Amino acid sequence: MEHLFGHDWEIVPAGGATGEAFYAKHEEQRLFLKRNSSPFLAVLSAEGIVPKLIWTKRMENGDVITAQQWMNGRELKAADMNQESVAKLLRKIHSSKPLLGMLTRMGKSPLQPETLLHLIEEELDSDLKEQTAVIQSVDFLKKEVSHIRREENTVCHCDVNHNNWLLSENNQLYLIDWDGAMIADPAIDLGMLLYWYIPKEEWLNWLERYGIELTDDLRLRMKWYVIAQTLTSIQWHKSKFRYQEMDKWLSYLDELL
C-alpha cells in the first residue's frame, strides 16, 4: 500500500473485520483506502450514498485499491435514527435503479426467504436448536415463510446499525460499509432499523417519512426478517465464543416472540 504514495504519507489501518481498510494522510490531504472493494462502490459514490470515490488503481498482484474522500464528521447515535434524513436516504437506496442494475450485473440474485430459512436451519448448532426461544423462532419462520414472498426486490444494505451512518461536518448523510449488500425485500433493512431504534408508537410516522404505509403485511415481513437476523447473530456470536453477546441476543429473541 505504501508504494502508492510518497514517503511523506502516513498510512494506518482503519480497523474493521476484514483488515482491508486504511487511512492515508499527508498535511491537509486525507483519503480512505480500501483493498479489493466491490465495483459497486463507484455507483454508490455516483449516487451520493458514500463519500466520493477519488481514484481506483490496479496493483501488479491483481489487487484493486480504491481511494475515497475522507469526511470529517461523526457516526449517528441510536437516538439520531428517528431523523427524517435517515428515512429519506434509505428510501433513496431502496428506490435506486442504478444500484439495482449494478448488483444484478455483478451476478447477485434476489435473496428468497426460503433460502434464508434453509441457511439458518443448516447453520444453527445442536445446542442452540434445543433452546426454547430458538425452537419457537424457527417454527414461526417455517409457518410464515410462504406468506412473506415479495416480487419486487431492492438493493438492501443488510446492516443498518447506527455505526454505519456517517454525518459529515456539512450535514451530508452517508451510509457506509456495503460489503453485505444484497438484492432482497426492503423489510430486511426496515425491520432492523425500526425494531432496534424506533419506538413502536412512532413506526407509522417514520414510515410516512420513508414513503410507505405500515400495513399488516409489512409488519409480518419485518418481524420475520428480524427474527431470522437475530438467529443468525446468535449463532455467529456463539461460533466466536462471545457468549455474553449470544445471551443478549437470546434474551432479545424472547422479547420478539
The CATH homologous superfamily of the largest domain is named: Aminoglycoside phosphotransferase (APH), C-terminal lobe
- In CATH, the topology of the largest domain is named Aminoglycoside 3'-phosphotransferase, Chain: A, domain 2
Helical percent range? Answer: 40-55%
So what's the overall shape? globular
Tally of separate domains = 2
Mean pLDDT: 92
Largest sheet: 5 strands, antiparallel
- State Rg: 20 Å
- CATH class annotation of the largest domain: Alpha Beta
Indicate the low-confidence ranges by residue numbers. Answer: none
For the termini, the CA-CA separation is: 48 Å
The chain-level structural class is: alpha+beta
Counted by DSSP, the helix tally is: 9
CATH architecture of the largest domain: Alpha-Beta Complex
- The largest sheet has its strands arranged as 1-2-3-5-4
Q: How many β strands by DSSP?
A: 10
Describe this structure in words.
The structure is a single chain. With 257 residues, this protein is an alpha+beta fold. Helix 6 packs across helix 8. It folds into two domains: 69 residues, 2-Layer Sandwich (Phosphorylase Kinase, domain 1); 182 residues, Aminoglycoside phosphotransferase (APH), C-terminal lobe (Aminoglycoside 3'-phosphotransferase, Chain: A, domain 2), CATH 3.90.1200.10. It starts with 9 loop residues before the first strand and ends with a helix. The strands form three sheets. The protein has a five-stranded antiparallel β-sheet, covered by helices on one side. Strands 6-8-9 form a three-stranded antiparallel β-sheet, covered by helices on one side. A two-stranded antiparallel ribbon has the order 7-10. The chain is built from nine helices and ten strands. A hairpin with a 2-residue loop joins strand 2 and strand 3.
